[in-house]
Automatic annotation (TrEMBL):
This protein's UniProt keywords: Membrane, Transmembrane, Transmembrane helix
TM segment ranges: 12-35, 47-72, 101-129, 149-172, 184-211, 231-253
Transmembrane helix listed as a keyword: yes
Annotated protein name in UniProt: Uncharacterized protein
Highest taxon, organism lineage: Bacteria
Organism from which the protein derives: [Clostridium] nexile
Length: 260
């Protein structure tokens, strides 16, 4: 039964998410050709500005749309009229939650990978190759660490964050449904309240491990060490958050489900 539930969730999400991510990649390919053409042709600056703004907008809108669709899918399938049918399936609440979370987390990671791939499509052009060594050296000086280390550390914490984000979405929706009215508003308030609390906690931990985002360390090695320590601490907190939020969501789904 679990396998069928997971397949169903992937179908439900992919119906909307697949087209918008294909659109993102197509837009990035068009952007790549535009920027290459601008490097060899004398085109008006307004075309460059419009193309740049369009690509930035796409990179912002697609991840936001992915998050919104994940939340809407979870809410509609469990806490609206559709929830009556979902909860009568021969599956435990744990299986229902796992199937939805698994599909949502996979799509969140795919979203991250496709956004990075789209950025690479646009940026990695011959004109960039010519100045890549100099640019990487300047980036290394600015970061006070290897650009590759910074990139993969950021990707790693982002992947961990995908799980934490989905868990927080589900937990917020589950809190919102405890209200007799204005459930969507309640879920939104719960999301921002919990996000604020954990953001402050994350900042406190960063300072506690010796990383000050507003000041530079006294040497490259110290900066790198402090940076990695902050990322490790952030990853640990994110993992704890994920278990906490999914655990809370499971409890509310099993004990406090209110479809009235």
């Amino acid at each position: 039964m679990l396998g069928k539930l997971i397949k169903h969730e992937f179908r439900a999400l992919s119906r909307f998410l697949l087209p918008i991510h294909i659109l993102l990649l197509v837009a990035c390919l068009i952007g790549r050709f535009m920027f290459q053409a601008m490097a060899t042709m004398d085109l008006p600056n307004v075309i460059l500005i419009v193309s740049f703004v369009f690509l930035i907008s796409i990179w912002i809108v697609v991840p936001c749309a992915t998050s919104i669709l994940i939340v809407v899918r979870y809410y509609k399938s469990l806490y609206t009229d559709e929830g009556y049918l979902t909860l009568t399936l021969p599956a435990t609440r744990g299986q229902l939650l796992f199937s939805k979370a698994f599909a949502a987390c996979v799509w969140s990671i795919l979203d991250l990978a496709i956004v990075i791939a789209g950025l690479a499509i646009v940026v990695i052009i011959p004109q960039v190759y010519q100045n890549s060594a100099e640019a990487l050296n300047e980036l290394e000086k600015a970061l006070e660490m290897s650009p590759s280390l910074f990139f993969w550390s950021t990707v790693g914490i982002s992947v961990v964050g995908c799980f934490g984000n989905v868990a927080l979405y589900y937990f917020s929706v589950s809190i919102g449904q405890l209200l007799s009215s204005h459930r969507v508003l309640g879920a939104i308030i719960a999301y921002f309240a919990i996000s604020t609390v954990f953001s402050v906690l994350m900042l406190i931990v960063m300072f506690a491990v010796g990383y000050d985002p507003f000041l530079s360390a006294s040497s490259d090695s110290l900066a790198t060490t402090a940076f990695l320590s902050s990322y490790k601490a952030s990853a640990i907190i994110c993992v704890l958050e994920t278990f906490l939020f999914f655990g809370g969501t499971y409890y509310l789904l099993k004990k406090k489900t209110n479809l009235n």
